[in-house]
Amino acid sequence: MIANRGLSSGFEKRLTSKRLRALISLVGICSFATIGSASVESAHSTSTDEWVAMPSDLHWVRNAAEYKALTQQIYAAATKELEARVASGEFEGKRWGVSMDADETVLDNSLEAKERRGAEFRLDVWQDWCRRVEAPAVPGSVAFIRRVKALGGNVAIVSNRSVMVQEATEANLEKLGVPFDVVLLKDEADEKEPRWELVESGAAIAGLEAFEIVMYFGDNIKDFPKLTQGLASDGAATEFEEFGRKFFVLPNPVYGSFASNSKL
Ligand SMILES: [Mg+2]
Fold first, then answer.
1. How many A from CA of 218 to the centre of ligand 1?
2. Separation of 123 CA from ligand 1 center, angstroms?
């Protein structure tokens, strides 16, 4: 006890010295500098134990030049194809337009995935993200959609975001300067076919006449009429023929219906 008290007393004396206080301050600054980036990284952490490092798929989408090149390549090819089809007279005398999925096709939600740090998807967390209206555009998408409008086409955003975030989704698209005629989100069914039928029959919303959907865009195989993950194992080459002409698929290695496919 005496020794302890002596040690304590001596330590207190040393603690009062200006030199030691300066040393403690320096240690504090160094510690903050060392962990500063980790502190910022974990600000939104919900499962730090699982998050060892940003996984390659998310890193690629957020930071690879190849991702940005690829999405712009897809939209450039789509623009060229659309211009050629318009010039050919294929759409003369009829109302036409395109179907665009939203997430990872027009809206880049990779920041939400980064902030989740590997935690399970949660609908409430996702909808909070949607309501922040902070998703940037997938590179190339806005210019393409504007080109559709300039060529006389219509734009239907057909997404499986919930109708609960209708207002926020439209606000995010408007913030990015995306012109659209209708945004059809998910009310009940995951399948998009009923919503495409509404568009093509003129029953989607009041004031929007029926138009034929001549191109479909999405990052999930289900963003294309009648297509499923079955294509991955059973698809004949002919079933892919519409890609590059009528169907344009955007890359999304982070999530999607592919995730439950067999891992061969
Ligand atoms: Mg999507």
1. 6
2. 15
- φ, ψ (nearest 5 deg) of residue 156: -110, 120
3-state SS class at 155: strand
CA distances from 204 to 42, 94, 183 (A): 43, 18, 9
Give me ligand 1 centre to Cα 138, in Å: 11
57 CA from centroid of ligand 1 (Å): 16
Extract the tokens encoding 71.
């999405």
For the stretch 172-183, pLDDT in tens is 999 999 999 999
Q: What is the pLDDT of residue 21?
A: 43
- Which residues lie at CB < 5 A from ion ligand 1? 101, 103-104, 219
CATH classification of 56-260, choosing from 1.20.1050.10, 3.40.50.1860, 3.90.79.10, 3.40.50.1000? 3.40.50.1000
The pLDDT tens digits for 106-146 are 999 999 999 999 899 999 999 999 999 999 999 999 999 99
Centre of ligand 1 from the C-alpha of residue 222, in Å: 9
pTM value?
A: 0.81
